[in-house]
Amino acid sequence: MLSLAQSLLFRLLSGRISSSFFTISSLLNHLTQTHLDFKPPHVLLYESIVNTHVQLQLLEQSLFYFTEMIEKGLVPSSNSFNGFLACLLRSNSFQKAWRVFKDMRGRVGMDVYSFGIMIKGCCENGDLNRAFEVLAQLEDLGLCPNVVIYATLIDGCCKSGDINRAKKLFNEMGELGLVANQFTYTVLINGFFKKGSKKDGFELWEKMKLDGVSPNIYTYNSIMSEYCNDGKVSDAFQLIDEMLERGLCNVVTCNTLVGGLCREMKVLEAEKLVGRMERAGLSPNIITYNTLLDGFCSVGKLDKAGNLFNEMKSNGLSPSFFTYNVLIEGFSRVGNPAQASSLILEMEERGISPTKTTYTILIDAFIRWDNMEKVFELYHSMQKAGLEADVCTYGVLISGWCRKGNMKEASRLFRSMSEVRLEPNHVIYNVMIYGYCKEGNSYRALRLLKEMGENGMVPNVASYSLTTEVLCKDGKWKEAEIFVNDMIDSGLKPSVSIYNLISKTKFIDK
């Protein structure tokens, strides 16, 4: 009778049948009459009603009947409670789920899975403190966490950056005789790499294989990414052969290795790899093309980049703003303003607005082409478009004025950064120091060097060397010696020519 009632409820609540007389209340009244002989009557009936509402994602109603059930002194099974709790969490009602979990402690039958569901909810909401609070409650009841609970907590710790706690949990698992699964190994390996603990990550990778746990595609991609970041492209190629044998390659794998090859300037090898992937049934995506385009532009192969760009469009992939920025920078770098301008027009025709990066690339290009009129035209266009110049844009403009020897304009821009709440970085300071040294202004160069130190930045070797040269030209060899000592204290090594210049200045002074 209960299964029939639940079926009837489901159809009624989902709108498959309708009745102006039949309601849940009338069903409850009818089925709880004493003449009906099924045991235990109320618990199973209420569970059917709650479960039906859960299936239909009717949270408020399911909470109402669940609470009514408890208030009548009925104890729902752990399965019913778990389904209800999981439904609350799936519906992004974490706080409500937490209150229900707390309120129902000791009033419903909870099992390990109940605690596991709540721990997962806490971790997914970034609340590790509550997750470990639930773990402690679980252990207080004499229950033992299972592999899934440990894996969930390890994942939560890795995502929050607490890799030491994640490692401790992993070791605890082993001490309890629990065997880590594919997911546990993968999240911890990835966690180690994200924190820069490469040694631990690779050691765990070896342990995973020794323990007979097969890596999945996410494990392989994590290892592949780390090999490529370290420049170990040959190791990455060995790994991809293994992955292809197991049928575990995807476009992410391909993109990772293509990126690694392009960073090593092995762009033609990257192109061959894409061909190999296509033969294996993998279609390049926008990231694949963008990475290859960037690679070809970096090595000056703009003809190849242009052909690839056309191939990408003919394959039905729409270029992104990143695609255009890469190509605009590539053509700007080789002194082809016509092609760069053509790309901007195409970009706008496709409804893609130039970004801050696009403007910065073009500003840098026109500075190098000595077209300052166009530079400021672009700068004003950028402002009209509602794009505020960032540190990078200021850096490009300041560098342009310094290269042209116009330190008045460079200084004006440098000081105006504070008005828009931007702090010059070490690159901008070094460019300004270079500009002042070039015009022989040792006083201003020294003042900026001091300012850099006060702001926690260390000048580069070129800034120290150029300032020392200017001091020597002014006959200030004593200041130059002090300056060289400061340079050594900063961990930088002065060149032999600097020492020779100071000695020569001393000799002339005598």
Topology, element by element:
Elements: H1 2-13, H2 24-31, H3 41-55, H4 59-71, H5 78-90, H6 94-104, H7 112-124, H8 128-140, H9 147-160, H10 163-175, H11 182-194, H12 198-210, H13 217-229, H14 233-245, H15 251-263, H16 267-279, H17 286-298, H18 302-314, H19 321-333, H20 337-349, H21 356-368, H22 372-384, H23 391-403, H24 407-416, H25 426-438, H26 442-454, H27 461-473, H28 477-489, H29 496-509
Helix pairs in contact: 1-3, 3-4, 3-5, 5-6, 5-7, 7-8, 7-9, 9-10, 9-11, 10-11, 11-12, 11-13, 13-14, 13-15, 14-15, 15-16, 15-17, 16-17, 17-18, 17-19, 19-20, 19-21, 21-22, 21-23, 23-24, 23-25, 24-25, 25-26, 25-27, 26-27, 27-28, 27-29, 28-29
What does this structure look like?
This protein has 510 residues and is mainly α. Among the domains are: 1-110; 413-510, Serine Threonine Protein Phosphatase 5, Tetratricopeptide repeat (Alpha Horseshoe), CATH 1.25.40.10. The protein is 73% helix and 0% strand. The protein has 29 helices and no strands. α17 packs antiparallel against α18 and α23 (391-403) packs parallel to α25. The longest helix is centred in the first third of the chain and has 15 residues, at 41-55. The termini are far apart. Mean pLDDT is 85; it is low at 34-40. InterPro entries: PPR_rpt, TPR-like_helical_dom_sf. This is Pentacotripeptide-repeat region of PRORP domain-containing protein.
